[in-house]
Amino acid sequence: MKNLLSTLEQHLVRLPVTASVQLSTGERIGPDNSAVQLIFRSPKALAALVDGQVGAVGAAIVEGWVDVKGQARDIMAAAAGILQSDPVSHTPTWLEQTVSKAKSLAMHTLTRDAEQIQFHYDLSDDFYALWLDPRRVYSCAYFKDLEMSLAQAQEAKLDHICRKLQLKPGERFWDIGSGWGGLIFWAAEHYGVQAHGITLSRNQYDYVQRLIAEKGLQGKVHVELRDYREMDGVKPFDKIGSVGMFEHVGSANLPEYFKTVYTMLKPGGLALIHGITAGGVGNAEVGAGIGDFINRYIFPGGELMHVSRVLHDMGQSGLEMVDTENLRPHYARTLWAWSDSLEAQLPQAQRILEAQYDADKAAKALRAYRLYLAGCAMGFERGWVALHQMLCTRPDGNLQTGPLKGAQSSYPFNREYIYR
């Protein structure tokens, strides 16, 4: 124990912010009034702290074994400082890859996916509304202008997607994983499309149905409780969007996901795939226990893949990637905005969760989300994870005439149309 405490003291001195640890015995290591304070009610997570297993320390905080005090940015700076290795440098062995594939297949059945989506997105609509923008856009914003508010940047993101897709009045647009309806409403109201969304979240489905009625958009916007693998009998769409959804698909099901996009997209149509990708080429999740924490408390069944893997499976399906943009810094800023908003309203967040759950579950959920939002912001800041928008087309085989003769491309020759 003495060696453990000595090592811990050395770690604390090297951190970029002042930090202290109070043991369950009352003994204190580190300076008084430090920026970050960890109060251990149990010695369970002490070894994890010394080993740099920040995910295990986070779990101990959620479970109430450890209290943490300090500003979110300081806490995350300390968390990054105790890491013993790069959390995205691991290259899995053949055995690890085989086990991971089997686990992925088991985790992503129709039933399991519905349960996992509802675990996260059906936590509490009022809770999400507290710290999201008014449109409840729960994905990376696009800070077209650095002075934009979060709400403005989310609208800019919705428009950025619609411009990339070249949406036109009367087109049939499919949104795979439509959330609280931000994209389908924006596309219908600003671009005149027939917008069709699907979700596995009952809360989101009910909310969008109410909003369709309130806005008088029956016949223009439609939403279903439906899995992307159950689209038999639906005719292909002119354009497809998928925002913050393929992270839930699972590595083993990614080929099927893209084959569905290909099948449901008209020849010559465009699809925009927007999602979180792994920062490392080989790692399936962020190391140091961070991925385990996310899977346990936030996104069960979530899997990240490097953009190269995503584009590989996209290409194998027959889709052609025509434009890819990395919005990683935009997501760091988005997440810090969410984190700041939640941190400023903690008593209200606690009351909202306690209205739906018992006090213990509500407290655990709030502690988990505080760590999740700030931790993900740190992860995007440091490049442990990224966010890519990948625009693809289903080639129609028709050669162009005039200036584009022989090009076989319905996609513009430059990006001016996006920004004009």
From TrEMBL:
* InterPro entries in UniProt: CFA/CMAS, CMAS, SAM-dependent_MTases_sf
Record's keyword terms, sorted = Lipid metabolism, Methyltransferase, S-adenosyl-L-methionine, Transferase
Pfam families listed in its UniProt record: CMAS
- Per its UniProt record, what CDD domains does this chain match? AdoMet_MTases
List, in alphabetical order, the GO biological process terms annotated in this UniProt record.
Answer: methylation
GO molecular-function terms, A-Z:
methyltransferase activity
Q: Which domain of life is it from?
A: Bacteria
Q: Which Gene3D superfamilies does this UniProt record tie to the protein?
A: Vaccinia Virus protein VP39 (3.40.50.150)
Q: What top-tier enzyme class does this entry carry?
A: transferase
**Does Cytoplasm appear among the keywords?**
no
Question: What transmembrane ranges does the database entry give?
Answer: none
EC number(s) from the headed UniProt entry: 2.1.1.-
Task: Please state which protein family the record places this protein in.
Answer: Belongs to the CFA/CMAS family.
Cite the PANTHER family for this sequence. Answer: CYCLOPROPANE-FATTY-ACYL-PHOSPHOLIPID SYNTHASE
Q: What is this protein called?
A: Class I SAM-dependent methyltransferase
Organism in which the protein naturally occurs: Comamonas terrae
